[in-house]
Amino acid sequence: MGEILGIGCPHGPHMRFTDETMANVYFRINLRNAKTPAVLRDPKNWPAKMRAEWGNDEGVSAARRHREEVINGFRAARQALDQFNPDFVLMFGDDQYENFKEDILPPFCVYAFDEFAIGGAKGGRRNEIGPNGILNTGVSNLGIPMERPPQQSRIAGSKKIGTLLAGELVNKGFDVGWSSQFHHSTGLGHAFTFTLDYLDWDRKGFPYPLIPFQVNCYGEDMRMPALGANEWIGRLPDRSEVDKILSKGGVLPPQAPPVWRCYDLGKAVAEIIAASPYRACIIGSSSWSHASLTDLHGFLWGDVESDREHYDQLKAGRFDQWRNLDPDKLRSSGQHEMRNWICLAGAMEGREAQILTYAESYIFNSSKCVALFPPRARDGDIL
What we know:
Blueprint: E1 3-9, H1 27-31, H2 38-41, H3 48-54, H4 60-84, E2 88-94, E3 108-111, E4 115-118, H5 126-129, E5 153-156, H6 159-171, E6 177-179, H7 190-199, E7 210-215, H8 239-247, H9 259-274, E8 279-285, H10 304-315, H11 327-332, H12 338-347, E9 354-359, E10 368-373
Parallel strand pairs: 1-8, 2-7, 2-8, 3-6
Antiparallel strand pairs: 1-10, 3-7, 4-5, 9-10
C-alpha cells in the first residue's frame, strides 16, 4: 500500500530578484502604466497594510522579509520531504505558453520522462518561454536583474511511473494527455523549475524522480501572441481590447477544466498511488490571487481578502470546500492557478494541513502559502 506526503507551495519568480527589484514584477510596471487609474496609483488610496509594506523605501525592506518568510517555508517543506524520502514526486503545475501552444493545449497532461532539463528554456522572447521565463544571464526576460540566476542542471524523472499513472487515470475516466517529449521548449516550464529551485534553495541537489503534471489553469486567458501577449506584460487586456481582437477574427482558447474536475482528478491520483507499492510526494504549485491577473485594483494588488478566506479554510481543514469554488470568481480574482492547489486538495481529502508560512503581500503580485500534509500511516493514523 502506497504512502503520500502532500506539499502546497508557490512558484512565482519574486524570490529570485534582488530586494531593490522584487517589486518591479509587476507592481512598479503597473504603477507607471497610464492605463492604471490615477486614483489607484496614489498611495493615499491604498489599504493601510499596503502602504506599510511599500514603506519609506518602496518595498525594499518588505522584499527582504517576504523572501525570508517564503524560503523558510520551503526549507521546512524540504526537510519534511527528505525525511519522507519518496520514490517519486508528482507536481501539479501550469503551463504558460511554454510547452503547449496553438498546436495543442490539453486540460491535463502527464509528462513521462526519465530525465528533465532544468534552467534551459529555449530562446529569450516572451512568446518562446512564457510570461515569467528566465534566461541564463542573471537577467529576467523583463530586463530586471536577479540575485539568484538559475542553474543549468538535469534531474531524474520516471517514464514508467508517469505512463502507468496516465493509464490508470484513463481507466478511471480521466482523459489526460501524456507526453514524453517537449514541444516548444528544451525543458520544463517555470511552474515546475521555480518550485524545484525553491525546494533546493541551499543547492544540495534534488534526488527524487519528478512526474510533472500539467494543468491548463488559464484557459481563455492564456497569453498567446495573437491575443496581445507581448503588449500586456503584468496585466491582462480588458474586455474592450479582447473584443477588438475577436472582431478581427481572433479566437480565444477553450476554458480551463472545471474546478470540481481538478479536485476529483487529484483525489483519483491519490487513490492510484495508495493502491501502489510507492511512497510519493504530491505537490500543488502556485500562488492564489495574482495582481497581474485581476483588474479589481487596476492590476496593482490582488484579491488579498479572498486569498485570506481560502487560507482560513485551509487552516481549518475545510479545503474540501474548494471543489465547489465558482470558476468565474476564481477568474475575476486572478486565482487562475489555484487549480493546481485544488488538485492537491482532492488528493489530500480528509487530512489536516500544517501551515509552514503564509506571506501576505500587496506589492509582490501575490500572497504566498507553503503548507504540509503529513502522510498517513498504513493503519490510517496520521504520522
